[in-house]
Design brief:
It comes from Streptomyces beihaiensis. The chain is α/β, with parallel strands linked by helices. It has eleven helices and nine strands. Strands 4-5-6-7-8-9 form a six-stranded parallel sheet. The protein has a three-stranded parallel sheet with strand order 1-2-3. Helix 2 links the parallel strand 2 and strand 3. The chain starts with a strand and ends in a 6-residue tail after the last helix.
Length: 287
């Protein structure tokens, strides 16, 4: 899979981001080409069900740029959806996730490769618990990994208690997103010790004031023996954040973040974080 952006978005549309939709196919192609030009090989798109994934366009984009794309099923926080969709029963959600993982997303012919769900700020509300139960059921049926949005990087241990404790998902099948947004090394270490993967993503966002601490946090985790649990992603969610629209975008991860991390962790460790670790994290382990 080459160098892997472990969490990003080519397409994303939410009522919470009016006027900032990622929905332009040509700009998505240009962004992938820019990412490929700096050495990018694969993008894992975490856009779940109902948020404008445009799965039918992913094959042509991959063919045009040479960048592999992993699509997602799953459900985000309730605020991104209509009340009716947000309230869908766990059994119905699980059936949807399994169908998109095994048969395809709509009529696109594209099968999802991961299940994306989301927690809240320091808590798991009823919606999060319902969607995580559905995700766990779909994981057990298909072997697909579960990727989790953590609001401002919080609640990782609660997620692990639910998914890996009560719902019996193996920790190495869980990817904990946005942990750079809450630089709590104690929580990060405990999460890494569980065997889950920790995604440090969104480093190009100026409004995330903790991002400058990311190299120190990752170096501390690597020194503690958890380098094999670390992932990197860009998490581009708005049109203005794309590099081809004047923002940092996907190339920033390799142009600016990688050299900075190499100074803290060493080139070999960063190479592993960008290649071998995500290749394992997003593998599908059929049961």
């Amino acid at each position: 899979m080459g160098v892997i952006d472990a969490h990003d978005h080519l397409f994303f549309r939410s009522p919470l981001l009016p006027g900032q939709e990622l929905d332009d196919v040509e700009l998505a192609r240009q962004e992938l080409a820019a990412y490929a030009a700096v050495g990018g090989g694969t993008v894992v798109q975490w856009t779940p069900h109902g948020l404008g994934r445009r799965a039918e366009r992913l094959p042509e984009l991959a063919a045009a740029t040479g960048v592999r794309i992993v699509a997602a099923t799953g459900l985000h926080q309730a605020a991104h959806y209509s009340a009716e969709l947000a309230a869908t029963a766990a059994t119905d959600l699980a059936a949807l996730f399994v169908r998109e993982l095994t048969e395809g997303i709509g009529d696109s012919g594209v099968r999802a490769g991961l299940i994306k769900v989301a927690g809240g700020f320091h808590a798991l509300d009823a919606h999060a618990r319902r969607t995580m139960r559905a995700a766990a059921e779909a994981h057990h049926a298909t072997g697909a990994p579960i990727a989790v949005h953590h609001e401002l990087g919080t609640g990782a241990l609660d997620v692990l208690d639910l998914l890996c404790g009560e719902l019996e998902v193996a920790p190495h099948r869980v990817v904990l997103g946005h942990l750079n947004r809450s630089p709590d090394i104690v929580t990060q270490t405990e999460a890494a010790r569980s065997g889950a993967y920790l995604a440090f993503d969104g480093p190009s966002r100026a409004n995330h004031a903790t991002d400058w601490r990311m190299p120190d946090s990752m170096a501390a985790l690597a020194s503690a023996g958890h380098a094999d649990r670390l992932l990197l992603g860009g998490d581009t969610t708005t049109a203005g954040a794309r590099s081809v629209s004047g923002g940092p975008g996907m190339p920033y991860l390799l142009r600016r973040v990688r050299p900075r991390l190499e100074a803290s962790l060493g080139r070999e460790t960063v190479e592993r974080i960008l290649t071998a670790n995500p290749a394992r994290a997003f593998a599908v382990e059929w049961t």
